[in-house]
Every structure is written in structure tokens, then in C-alpha cells.
Amino acid sequence: MSELATLARPYAEAVFKRAKEIGNSQEWSETLAFLSAAMQDENLTEIVNNPKVSEAQVVKLMQEICQDQVTGEGINFLKLLIENDRLNLAPQIAEQFESYKAEDEGYVDVDVITAYALTKAEEQSFASSLKKKLNKAVNIRSSVDKSLIGGFLVRAGDSVIDGSISGQLQQLAKRI
Known about the structure:
8 helices, 2 domains, Glutaredoxin
């Protein structure tokens, strides 16, 4: 696990526990997704990491950016992240929060990467196979990566299933 993920874990756990207490997991999910997206903007990251920009200025800037998207406890959480110099962890916190939420709700988010786009029928077939294998409901996010040549690559949490031709070629090259 990366250092950033380790630093993000206590924040993600705390937010998840709070969301469970008051029953607003979806609101927190949206808040964290927005903060994550904002912190992936290079210009904003540059400003936040600039030592010449004060904490108060970062708080004011972020409140202006988040106006309608982040409210109430989300603003307090935002201030906490800024105060502890952890705002850059927003993407990792959001990712871990979603993982806790999925575990709690009994489903798993699965990334399916294929060389060619899947039809709806193929996607449903894939979902039912993965549901049996993982013993959980499955939310599939599919994408296309032509470098796979053929086959698929599945990522479900920490598990990876590489059924791609490029993966098989890499394994063959290692054996030789």
C-alpha cells in the first residue's frame, strides 16, 4: 500500500463512520468525489502547495470553489484537511471511502478493461460471472485499452485478473 493511502486511511475511516452515524453516505460520496476532482487540477494543486499562500487563503479559495458542492460537515472536513496539510490526500480519501461504502453495502466496484468495447449483453454476462466469483453484487466500469490486443483485464479492489493477450505475451517473455 502506498504511503499516501496509509496517510488517507484514518480520514476515510472517520468520514465513513460519521456518514454511517447520520445516514448520509451518498452526500459524503459526492463531497469527496468533488474534492478529489478539484485536487486533481494541476493549477489548484500548485496554489495549495505554494508555501507563500497562507492556510487562511487556501481555506477561502477552497470555500469559493466548493460553494454549492460542499456544505456543512464537508466544509469542516475541508478545513481539517487544510489545517493538517492533507488536502492533497483528497483523491485517496475518496477512493478508500468508496471502498468502505461498497463493502458495507455488499457490492464491489470492478474495472473491466478490454481491447474492444463490450456490448450490454457481454457486460451483463461478465457481471454475473464476477458476482459468482466474488460473492458480491458487482458494479462494472468498463473501458477500452487497445494495447491489450485482445481479452480483458479486471480490477476488483486489490485483485487483478489478467486475461489479456498482452499479459499472456508478457508472461511468455518472462518464461523465455
